[in-house]
Amino acid sequence: MKAAILLIISLFTTVVYAQQNVNYDESKVPVYTLPKLLEGSKGEKISTTEQWEKQRRPELLELFTSQVYGRTPTGKIDVTYETMVENPNAMGGKATGKQVKFTFSNGKKKIEALLLIYIPNNITGKVPVFIGYNFKGNHSTTSDITVLYSPTLQLIKGPDHHDRERGTQKSRWNYDKIIDRGYAVATMCYHDIFPDSPELKEYSILSLFPGYGPEVTVPDEWQAIGAWAWGSSRIVDFLETEEKIDGDKIAIMGHSRQGKAALWAGAQDERFKIVISNNSGCGGAALFRRKFGETIAVINKNFPHWFCNNFLQYNDRDEELPTDQHQLIALMAPRKVYVASAENDLWADPRGEFLSAYHAGKVYQLYGLKAIDSDEMPKIHQPIMEDIGYHIRAGEHDVMDYDWECYLNFADKHFRN
Ligand code: GCU
What is the pLDDT, as a whole number, of residue 15? Predict the structure, then answer.
């Protein structure tokens, strides 16, 4: 019965999306001019890394803050960490598994989040780490029966929803491969930071900050993507206290809506040394101005709690946004950034994802780094691994072993020499 209801809900969602006026025809992509990367707001030429860092980068960061993702508060929220489970013999003995409860508090109210970490056992010294949110609870990423259920999932799904089953998202988290390659991995359920529904905002981290109210009152007020990005930085704060983790080698990997949040996290927090966006699409790596697949109007309608209110003014006026996503990707420079697409994931506009990685190259070149040298998309399974990386793989919107293989190769290239 439950399965039938779920099927009806998912068919309904697909129909709603399909009814929207979405373009999948490359010949109908409008002619567009991208906002300039290397020109200041008053038309000044930006030709040195110093001008980029002192002038242009802050200008762009401010535009993304005020027009797209909202302003991350600068105030701190108290956090305590409690190790709930430590298993030195996880994954058949090759890793140490740790589960740490974060308790965020403003003195009146608390929010709990649960981090799961696996650290390889056979390496002496510190190890690099991949961090990333999961969608369905830490228990969904593994069959390890010691892994606890993430606290907030049941707010979203109800206590006996099938997503409570262990291992349902295992295919997205190839822990064996990651540990065998000598990396640690840390994951948290994204609902712990902002349960992904406009109705559940009062359970989100936003509610701990001064001035919080259920209604948005300021047009650049932060929302869910801002909160998820903030939460990734809190994971970094914790990992910096972990003896075995190399705090200079932190990669963030986000899929889809979490690919959007990973890019926003990487733009704001330079402790992320590799930023990976997997199939992140509209509001992630894809260029808005192509209006291919999901557009600003569509995403704002379906996910009113993701972006700040100022972003609403660009509904059906994508070309009037003063920024575009190649500028977001360029904010990672000179750190490394990787964009990945899937061939059948047209909703996310693979070509638009590729082109923003390509156009971000100008800033990398300013640093003397290697960007993507052609605006021809590479063929399926022909990854580009320069200081900016890109691949398109066969298949659907997902995180697959092939994606991890590429991310590990990219991390080896940049973290291991
Ligand atoms: C929806 C949404 C996308 C998002 C995706 C996901 O398809 O429209 O913008 O990236 O969900 O997070 O899986």
Answer: 44
Q: Considering the domain 2-415, what is its CATH architecture?
A: 3-Layer(aba) Sandwich (3.40)
Is 414 an active-site residue?
Answer: no
Q: How far is the CA of 89 from the centre of ligand 1 (A)?
A: 36
Q: Which residue in 256, 277, 280, 356 is the catalytic one? A: 256
Buried b (16+ CB within 10 A) or exposed e, 244-253: bbbeebbbbb
What is the Cα gyration radius of the chain? Answer: 20
Dist. CA 88 → ligand 1 center (Å): 36
Catalytic site includes residue 280: no
Q: Is 55 exposed, middle or buried (0-12, 13-18, 19+ CB in 10 A)?
A: middle
Q: Which long-range contacts (CB under 8 A, 24 or more apart) does 156-161 make?
A: 156/191, 156/195, 156/196, 156/197, 156/200, 161/2
pLDDT digits (tens, 9 = 90+) for 153-212: 888 988 888 888 899 999 999 999 999 999 999 999 999 999 999 999 999 999 999 999
Q: Which pTM was predicted? A: 0.95
CA distance 267 to 78: 23
CA distances from 114 to 102, 121, 151 (A): 6, 22, 7
Number of Cβ within 10 Å of residue 271's Cβ equals 17
CB atoms within 10 A of CB 176: 14
Q: How far is CA 102 from the centre of its chain?
A: 20
Atom number of ligand 1 nearest to Cα 294: 8
CB 269 less than 6 A from any atom of ligand 1: no
Q: What is the 3-state secondary structure (H, E, C) of 143-211?
A: CCCCCCCCCCHHHHHCCCCHHHCCCCCHHHCCHHHHHHCCCEEEEEEHHHCCCCCHHHHHHCHHHHCCC
> Is the CB of residue 299 below 6 angstroms from any atom belonging to ligand 1?
yes
CA-nearest residue for atom 7, ligand 1, is: 347
Query: How many Å lie between the centroid of ligand 1 and the Cα of residue 257?
Result: 5
Ligand 1 centroid, distance to 277 Cα (angstroms): 13
Q: Report whether residue 345 contacts ligand 1, using a CB cutoff of 6 Å.
A: no
Contact 147, 99 (CB under 8 A): yes
Neighbouring residues of 302: CB distance < 8 A, sequence distance ≥ 6: 16, 17
